[in-house]
């Protein structure tokens, strides 16, 4: 419970109501309870200002609004309610949530990871290193929100501000020292983590995704940039690791190098990838850092994981870790669920991977081509109600780097799966390579039955997901389980 005064960061109280007690915070009118503060947000699909009356009926003591034109009417109709005007209710929701949950990031080392691909991977790698060094670590991201093996909840990759600060507070109360969190572009753009004191940040890469939301690559970049802007706004001693091979990484580095203490990684980095050797069961790579060559060995597979490890290790060096300790621990790291996960069959292998962007698909396929003994058979689809323009690009990549392509459904959501497949086909010129099977289980079955000695079957797009979203139904579906079941039957 808080007093309204304790939650303000420069907003203007335009009407003082009967009671200033605030027992909870929400931007969702359906979650309002007695004495809650309701934040009206102009959203992407609707405007929270339409739900103010609903919130008051449910017992809100306070409403935060951004629309000046309704102030007089509200004051007249609801003189007993606190009415607070904010220039930006999204920011106010974050700052008030932070205060409501006692500013948890002040007591934690919070590290935010952003980029199109690799956020989940890097955050799980960082968590393992910190845990190996004896820290208690909270993880917030796509798979779930957890402390060690204790799962707290799950939802968006980055939760909304209320859940974000509530989760940080819970992690603090449960004794965490460190929190590693994925910060999606939607989150940065919507100020979901605004006002958090980040110890540091990591930028992995930026390639096409989410243009349904951001419209252009430049806007998508600006959302990622906004995260670094927020880091330095609330911490003038923040550290960060950035992929300098990526032109957008270079821009972030240049824009904030005076404000953030950076380390760069990549083939052009200060933490420089010199060479690497991929195989199905281990990866070797050499790093040049401060004039010394460091040899690393890991069970993680694929060149993209050399990048993810470089992101993590360089960040940890900046955070004061000993390089020999990091080299040792790299040997023991556990691979991440649904990311280049290998299932061995009789004389071929199946790889399950979460690639759901053109760049991710290209990366995994390039790595598979480097280690294949025979053909690469790729099964994939694309998510419905998401960026449509990435579909033909994914089709082209699959065609260019596979011997056989089996097009199927991912999470069609409210779209027609056949139309999504048609969109992917737009990018494919070599139609003879392609088989269309919208039923994902049948598509996987076809791929496995087609596989010959030395082949690699890649099943891409859903990784750890154990469901399929068809319209508003969430149906159990786990690529790995389906693969194992089919392998047992053949
Ligand atoms: C595009 C997007 O990010 N939308 C999210 C966002 O919606 P929004 O702020 O635009 O809100 P809106 O739905 O237009 O509604 C406006 C306001 O009215 C309120 N409202 C609405 C209805 C009502 O009855 N009462 C009420 O008060 C809403 O709570 C909201 O505050 O905030 C909502 C509430 O916090 C989220 O549920 C919603 O997630 C949608 C469902 C979603 O699918 N988001 C995905 C794309 C997403 O966030 N993905 C990222 C990136 C994934 C990745 O790359 O890893 C993620 O972080 O997961
Ligand atoms: N550093 C990387 N560069 C390019 N591709 C990568 C990289 N790391 C992972 N990938 C590819 O992207 C897929 C998803 O990886 P991961 O889950 O770590 O990314 P993410 O950024 O968390 O994705 P999401 O936006 O869904 O949260 C992997 O399965 C792999 O195919
Ligand atoms: N976080 C990503 C996940 C995509 C996973 C893919 N299986 C899909 O459903 O499109 C997104 O929301 O775009
Ligand atoms: Mg993720």
Automatic annotation (TrEMBL):
Signal peptide range: none
Main location: cytoplasm
Pathway(s) the chain acts in: Cell wall biogenesis; peptidoglycan biosynthesis
InterPro entries from the UniProt entry: Mur-like_cat_sf, Mur_ligase_C, Mur_ligase_C_dom_sf, Mur_ligase_cen, Mur_ligase_N, MurE/MurF_N, UDP-N-AcMur-Glu-dNH2Pim_ligase
Catalyzed reaction equations: UDP-N-acetyl-alpha-D-muramoyl-L-alanyl-D-glutamate + meso-2,6-diaminopimelate + ATP = UDP-N-acetyl-alpha-D-muramoyl-L-alanyl-gamma-D-glutamyl-meso-2,6-diaminopimelate + ADP + phosphate + H(+)
Keywords: ATP-binding, Cell cycle, Cell division, Cell shape, Cell wall biogenesis/degradation, Cytoplasm, Ligase, Magnesium, Nucleotide-binding, Peptidoglycan synthesis
Sequence ranges assigned to domain Mur ligase central in this UniProt record: 113-314
Gene Ontology cellular component terms for the protein in this record: cytoplasm
Binding site for meso-2,6-diaminopimelate: 386, 410-413, 461, 465
Protein's recorded name: UDP-N-acetylmuramoyl-L-alanyl-D-glutamate--2,6-diaminopimelate ligase
Species for this entry: Sulfurihydrogenibium azorense (strain DSM 15241 / OCM 825 / Az-Fu1)
């Amino acid at each position: 419970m808080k007093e309204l005064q304790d939650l303000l960061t420069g907003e203007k109280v335009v009407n003082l109501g009967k009671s200033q007690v605030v027992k909870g915070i929400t931007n969702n009118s359906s979650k309002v309870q007695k004495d809650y503060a309701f934040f009206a947000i102009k959203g992407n699909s609707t405007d929270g200002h339409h739900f103010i009356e609903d919130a008051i009926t449910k017992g809100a003591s306070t409403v935060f609004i951004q629309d000046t034109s309704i102030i007089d009417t509200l004051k007249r109709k609801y003189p007993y309610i606190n009415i607070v005007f904010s220039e930006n209710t999204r920011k106010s929701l974050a700052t008030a949530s932070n205060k409501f949950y006692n500013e948890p990031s002040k007591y934690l080392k919070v590290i935010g990871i952003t980029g199109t691909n690799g956020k989940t991977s890097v955050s799980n790698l960082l968590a393992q290193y910190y845990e190996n060094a004896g820290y208690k670590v909270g993880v917030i991201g796509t798979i779930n929100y957890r402390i060690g093996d204790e799962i707290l909840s799950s939802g968006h990759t980055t939760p909304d501000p209320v859940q974000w600060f509530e989760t940080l507070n819970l992690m603090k109360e449960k004794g965490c020292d460190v929190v590693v969190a994925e910060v999606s572009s939607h989150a940065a753009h919507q100020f979901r983590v605004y006002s958090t004191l980040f110890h540091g940040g990591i930028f992995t890469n930026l390639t096409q995704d989410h243009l349904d939301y951001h419209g252009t690559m430049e806007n998508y970049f600006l959302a990622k940039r906004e995260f670094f802007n927020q880091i330095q706004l609330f911490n003038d001693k923040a550290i960060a690791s950035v992929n300098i091979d990526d032109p957008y990484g270079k821009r972030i580095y240049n824009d904030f190098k005076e404000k953030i203490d950076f380390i760069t990684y990549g083939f052009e980095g200060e933490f420089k990838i010199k060479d690497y050797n991929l195989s199905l069961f281990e990866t070797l790579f050499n790093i040049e850092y401060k004039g010394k060559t460091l040899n690393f060995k890991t069970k993680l597979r694929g060149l993209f994981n050399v990048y993810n490890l470089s992101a993590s290790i360089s960040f940890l060096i900046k955070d004061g870790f000993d390089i020999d300790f990091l080299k040792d621990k790299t040997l023991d790291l556990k691979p991440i669920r649904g990311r280049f996960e290998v299932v061995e069959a009789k004389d071929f292998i199946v790889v399950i991977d979460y690639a759901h962007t053109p760049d991710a698909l290209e990366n995994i396929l390039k790595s598979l081509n480097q280690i294949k003994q025979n053909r690469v058979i790729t099964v994939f689809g694309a998510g419905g109600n998401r960026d449509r323009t990435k579909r033909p690009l994914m089709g082209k990549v699959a065609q260019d780097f596979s011997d056989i392509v089996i097009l199927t459904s991912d999470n069609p959501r409210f779209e027609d799966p056949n139309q999504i497949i048609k969109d992917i086909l737009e990018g494919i010129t070599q139609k003879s390579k392609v088989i269309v099977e919208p039923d994902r289980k049948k598509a996987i079955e076809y791929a496995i039955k087609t596989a010959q000695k030395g082949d690699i079957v890649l099943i891409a797009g859903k990784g750890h997901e154990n469901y399929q979203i068809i319209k508003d139904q969430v149906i159990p579906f786990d690529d790995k389980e389906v693969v194992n079941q089919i392998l047992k039957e053949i």
